[in-house]
Design brief:
- The chain is α+β, with helices and mostly antiparallel strands and 513 residues long.
- 40% of the residues lie in helices and 24% in strands.
- It is built from 18 helices and 23 strands.
- The strands form 7 sheets. A 7-stranded mixed sheet has the order 3-9-10-16-13-12-11.
- This is Glycine--tRNA ligase.
- Belongs to the class-II aminoacyl-tRNA synthetase family.
Length: 513
C-alpha cells in the first residue's frame, strides 16, 4: 500500500513542479479540495475536453451541444430529487474526530481484499510463466474464490442497506469488518447519518427578497429542461443526444485524493433521448462506444474495467461504471446510466409543461427515455496524468522521469531548441516556431545543455524536440527527437510540421474508434 501512496505523492508533486495543478489560493494556505489548473494543466484539460467533444458531437450527426447556466430555478432541484435525496452517508470517528463517508470506508476495505487477489495472480503468473491462464486461475483457485465471495458479499450487503436507507446496518457492517479509522486506528464510531451535498446561495438585491438558489450539483438537469427547445429548434428526430461540458459543485465533506474528488469540478455529459423499450440495446451500445473512446488513447486495456451497480438509483433500470486503475486502485471514471423517463416526467409534473416528443412513424406522442454517459473531466485528467508518469532506467545506467501523455492530448506538442545561442541558430529556431504555432502549441527553449533540455521536456510531457544546429544552416535539416522512444532522426525543415501532425492530429487518434 505504501508503494501506491508513494506513487501518488510523486504524481501530486510532479503536477505542481511542471505547471499542471496548483493548490487554490495557496498563498493563503489553500482551500481543502479546491485546485487551480496551471499553464500546462489548462492545456491538457482543454485537449481532453476537445477530444471528448469531437468524438461525441462533431462525429455524430444526431448529437448537439449546449452550455446551460450554473444557476437554475430552484424547483429544478426539487423535481430532480436533489433537494430530498442528494445525500452521502457519513460516519465520525469518536477518537480522531475525523469524518468519513461510510460507503468509501467499506469500498477501501474491499480494495484491500482485491489487492490480495492481484497478489495471488502475480505469484501464479511468475510460477507458471507463459502457460499461465489468468481466467482459469481466477475461476478455480480456492483462495481467490474465497476472497471474491467475500468481496461480493460485502458489496451486495452495503448496496442493499444503502438502498433501504438502513444506516444502522451500514454501521454494523463497518463494525463486523473491524474497519479502523485510517488516521488513528480507532474503531470507535458514531452512527451513520445522511448529509445533503448541495451548496446553497442567494439571488436578489436584499436579504428579505432574496431567492434561495443552489449551485448545480450536476450538469444533466440543464440538458433535461432544454430538451424541447433543442428538439424543436434543431428539428431533431429520436434517437438524438444533447452534450454539455461544465462546472458542477458538491459540498464534499470528505474530499480527498487530490483532484479525484473536488468541491468544484467539471463534467462532460451526454443525454441520449430514445424510444421507450429500446433502452437495453442503447445501454449496451453506449457502453461499448465509450470504452472504445477510452481505449483509443492507448493507456492500456488492463487499466479499465466495467463495474455494474449493485445499488441502482430509484429511477434507473441499468447502470455501470467504467473504472480506471488510479494509483489508489480501481475507481469510477465514467458512468453509463439508463435513466428511463424519470427526468422528463418529473420536470413535466413540477413545471406543468408537456415535455413530449411526437413520433411521426408511430403517430403518437411520448415522454422519451434517457441514456446517460457522464465522465468527470478532472478524473479523466488525473487518469491520463497519473498513468503517463514513468521513471525509466536507461541503458547507460541513469534514469529519466518522463510524462508519456498521449501525444494528441499533450499541452505542448514540440519544443524547438537551438544547439547554441549564437551563429544564427536562434533565428532559424524562432522562424520554425513562427511557422509551427499556427497548427500546434510549441515552445522555444535555449537554456542549459541540450541533454538537460531533453530531460526537462520529457518530464513536462512534450512529445517532440526539434534541434537546430550548424548543419541546419548548410542543408536545412534538423534533428527531431521522439519523447517515448528517445529516437532521433534527421529530417528536412519542411517536413517537421507533417511529422508532428501525424502523431498529434485528433483525426488519426479518433479513427481508432
Amino acid at each position: 500500500m505504501a508503494n501506491q501512496e508513494d506513487i501518488f505523492k510523486k504524481v501530486i508533486s510532479h503536477a505542481k513542479e511542471y505547471g499542471y495543478v496548483f493548490q487554490s489560493s495557496e498563498i493563503y494556505d489553500g482551500l481543502s479540495a479546491v485546485y487551480d489548473y496551471a499553464q500546462n494543466g489548462v492545456e491538457l484539460k482543454k485537449n481532453i475536453r476537445e477530444y471528448w467533444w469531437q468524438a461525441m458531437v462533431q462525429l455524430n450527426d444526431n448529437i448537439v451541444g449546449i452550455d446551460a447556466a450554473i444557476f437554475m430555478h430552484p424547483t429544478t432541484w426539487k423535481a430532480s430529487g436533489h433537494v430530498d435525496a442528494f445525500n452521502d452517508p457519513l460516519i465520525d470517528n469518536k477518537d480522531s474526530k475525523k469524518r468519513y463517508r461510510a460507503d468509501v470506508l467499506i469500498e477501501d476495505h474491499v480494495a484491500k481484499i482485491e489487492a490480495k487477489i492481484e497478489k495471488e495472480v502475480k505469484k501464479a503468473a511468475k510460477r507458471f510463466g507463459d502457460s499461465f491462464d489468468k481466467e482459469q486461475f481466477l475461476a478455480t483457485n480456492q483462495r481467490v474464490l474465497d476472497y471474491q465471495t467475500k468481496v461480493d458479499g460485502i458489496l451486495k450487503r452495503m448496496g442493499k442497506s444503502l438502498e433501504n436507507e438502513d444506516l444502522a446496518d451500514v454501521k454494523s457492517l463497518i463494525e463486523e469488518l473491524e474497519i479502523a479509522c485510517p488516521l488513528s486506528g480507532s474503531k470507535n464510531w458514531t452512527d451513520v447519518k445522511q448529509f445533503n451535498l448541495m451548496f446553497g446561495t442567494k439571488l436578489g438585491a436584499s436579504a428579505d427578497s432574496a431567492m434561495d438558489l443552489y449551485l448545480r450539483p450536476e450538469t444533466a438537469q440543464g440538458i433535461f429542461v432544454n430538451f424541447l427547445n433543442v428538439q424543436k429548434t434543431g428539428r431533431m428526430k429520436i434517437p438524438f443526444g444533447i452534450a454539455q461540458t461544465g462546472k458542477a459543485f458538491r459540498n464534499e465533506i470528505v474530499a480527498r485524493q487530490f483532484i479525484f474528488r473536488m468541491r468544484e469540478f467539471e463534467q462532460m455529459e451526454m443525454q441520449y433521448f430514445i424510444k421507450p423499450g429500446t433502452q437495453q440495446e442503447w445501454y449496451e451500445k453506449w457502453k461499448e462506444k465509450r470504452m472504445k473512446w477510452h481505449l483509443s488513447l492507448g493507456m492500456g486495456e488492463d487499466n479499465y474495467r466495467f463495474h455494474d451497480h449493485e445499488k441502482l438509483a430509484h429511477y434507473a433500470d441499468a447502470a455501470a461504471d467504467i473504472e480506471f486503475r488510479f494509483p489508489f486502485g480501481f475507481k469510477e471514471l465514467e458512468g453509463i446510466h439508463s435513466r428511463t423517463d424519470f427526468d422528463l416526467s418529473q420536470h413535466e409534473e413540477f413545471s406543468g409543461k408537456k415535455l413530449q416528443y411526437f413520433d411521426p412513424e408511430e403517430n403518437k406522442s411520448y415522454v422519451p427515455y434517457v441514456l446517460e454517459t457522464s465522465i468527470g473531466l478532472d478524473r479523466m485528467f488525473l487518469a491520463v496524468f497519473s498513468n503517463s508518469l514513468k521513471e525509466e532506467e536507461l541503458e547507460n545506467g541513469t534514469t529519466r522521469t518522463v510524462l508519456k501523455i498521449p501525444a494528441v492530448l499533450a499541452p505542448t506538442k514540440a519544443a524547438v531548441l537551438p544547439l547554441l545561442k549564437r551563429d544564427g541558430l536562434p533565428e532559424v529556431a524562432h522562424k520554425l516556431i513562427d511557422e509551427l504555432r499556427w497548427d500546434f502549441n510549441v515552445i522555444y527553449d535555449e537554456k542549459d545543455a541540450v541533454g538537460r533540455r531533453y530531460r526537462r521536456q520529457d518530464a513536462a510531457g512534450t512529445p517532440f524536440c526539434v534541434t537546430v544546429d550548424h548543419q541546419t544552416l548548410e542543408d536545412e535539416t534538423v534533428t527531431i527527437r521522439h519523447r517515448d522512444t528517445m529516437e532521433q532522426q534527421r529530417v528536412k525543415l519542411s517536413e517537421v510540421k507533417d511529422i508532428i501532425s501525424k502523431e498529434v492530429d485528433m483525426r488519426y487518434w479518433l479513427q481508432k474508434i
